[in-house]
Amino acid sequence: MSNGGIKYTKTFNECIGFMLRIFVLLFCGFFSFNSVADSDIWLLVDTAARKIEIKKGERTLETLYKIAIGRGGAGHKTHRGDNITPMGSYKIGWIGEKSMFRRFFGLTYPSVDDARDALRKGIINQFTYDRIADAQSYNGVPPQNTPLGGQVGIHGLGTADPKVHEIFDWTHGCIALTNAQIDQLYEWIDTGTVVKIK
Q1: Which of 15, 76, 79, 155 is an active site residue?
Q2: What is the three-class DSSP state of 143?
Q3: How high is the pLDDT of residue 14?
Q4: Where are the transmembrane segments (predicted)?
Q5: I need a labelling partner for 193 at 20 to 30 A (CA). Which of 7, 27, 97, 175 fits?
Q6: Cα–Cα distance for residue pair 92/81, rounded to 1 Å
Q7: CA quadruple 123, 135, 192, 153: dihedral sign
Q8: What sign results for the dihedral spanned by CA atoms 118, 123, 126, 127?
Q9: Handedness of CA 149, 54, 44, 156 (dihedral sign)
Q10: CB distance 113 to 104 below 8 Å
Q11: Higher pLDDT pick, 60 / 24
Q12: Among 38-47, 86-95, 98-107, which stretch is predicted with the lowest mean pLDDT?
């Protein structure tokens, strides 16, 4: 009787161990597939041509035209409220599914490059620079409440007037698309997707 109990326990433990190994294999396989897929797709935001190219390597898969940028144009963003769309290399740090702008893809602005320049100019202190650098080192979202500003991203129109969107640049530094375009872009991106703004 006791031998049967030992045998049953051993068989049960082997079964559980096998199931756990299968689960871990599937889990790791799923995430390794996603990370490969994410690293292949990136976005090139051309602020002069007012377009976003969805790219895989050097190949353009799709292009979204007639984007809007900040009222202050695109360039070197120096402080909160300057209405400038920052130029540089960032990643999508978070995805807001429910936004007043339909969807909001937050960028990892400010970058270490932005912070280094701001530190040199005395706009931020060493402590703030270190916080931004640490966030980038750990693939996190940098602090959004520094003198350099934050909450810069790619978003839709929400209930805003599409006609206004077609006429002029209207954002406070973000990149705006139509609702249809932001939904289209949502199918391609994820957190960690590289976004290069030129």
Answers
A1: 155
A2: coil
A3: 53
A4: 12-33
A5: 27
A6: 21
A7: negative
A8: negative
A9: negative
A10: no
A11: 60
A12: 38-47
How far is Cα 189 from Cα 61, in angstroms, rounded to an integer?
13
Known catalytic membership, residue 79: no
Amino acid at 61: L
CA distances from 141 to 109, 126, 190 (A): 8, 18, 14
Over the stretch 147-188, which tens digit does the pLDDT of each residue have?
A: 999 999 999 999 888 988 999 999 999 999 999 999 999 999
The pTM of this model reads 0.79
Strand extents, DSSP E, the chain: 41-46, 51-56, 59-65, 74-75, 85-86, 88-99, 102-107, 153-155, 175-176, 194-197
Other residues' Cβ atoms within 10 Å of the Cβ of residue 67: 22
Cβ-contact 142, 109 below 8 angstroms: yes
The string of DSSP letters for 92-126 reads EEEEEEEETTEEEEEE--S-HHHHHHHHHTTSS-H
The two three-digit tokens of residue 42, written as one number: 């990136």
Cβ pair 188, 181 in contact under 8 A:
no
- The DSSP letter of residue 6 is H
